[in-house]
Amino acid sequence: MISRIIPYSFMILLLAAHFSRANNNILALVVLLIPFLLFVKQKWVIQTLEIVAYLSAVAWLYGAYQYIQIRIATGDDWMRLLAIMGIVALYSAWTGFFLRSPKIREKYGIDS
Questions:
Q1: Would residue 48 count as lying in a domain?
Q2: What angle is formed at CA 30 by the lines to CA 17 and CA 45, rounded to 5 degrees?
Q3: How many structural domains are present in the chain?
Q4: Which residue range forms the structural domain that includes residue 18?
Q5: Which among 53, 54, 98, 108 is least surrounded, fewest beta carbons within 10 Å?
Q6: Average pLDDT in the 79-85 region?
Q7: What's the rounded mean pLDDT across residues 73-80?
Q8: C-alpha angle 43/49/52, rounded to 5°?
Q9: Is 112 contained in some domain?
Q10: Enclosing H/E stretch for 72
């Protein structure tokens, strides 16, 4: 189970850094507190964490869109930015899907 939680925690750190870079430190702090929900052994926790992971992917894609628009306007290369932020978005979505493992579902009392 720990092998499922570590990638999720890393995703949270990336998301908090993303918000912190945008000078949204309050949201970054709130995001950093999300993994502590794992100590609550309830069904809604895993569902909430999955939703956060999927919304994180959307946030990365939206951020990529904004940054790409800036790069295009200034005439800079934007393909590498798209690749990096796209991979981070995929990683974020993958961590949400990764929380669906049988061990986690059993531990948090989620029926199939």
A1: yes
A2: 110
A3: 1
A4: 2-107
A5: 54
A6: 96
A7: 95
A8: 145
A9: no
A10: helix 43-74
Report the b/e string of 58-89 with b at 16+ CB within 10 A. Answer: ebbbebbeeebeebeeeeeebeebbeebeebb
Q: Report the alpha-carbon distance of residue 42 to residue 37 in Å, rounded.
A: 9
pLDDT for residue 64:
95
Residue with tokens 């061990």: 103
User: Under DSSP, is residue 98 helix (H, G, I), strand (E, B) or coil?
Assistant: helix
Tell me the one-letter amino acid at 5: I
Residue with tokens 């309830």: 42
Residue 30 CA to residue 19 CA, distance in Å, equals 10
Query: pTM for the complete prediction?
Result: 0.88
Rounded Cα distance between 106 and 112, Å, is 9
**Nearest of 96, 108, 102, 104 to residue 2 by alpha carbon:** 104
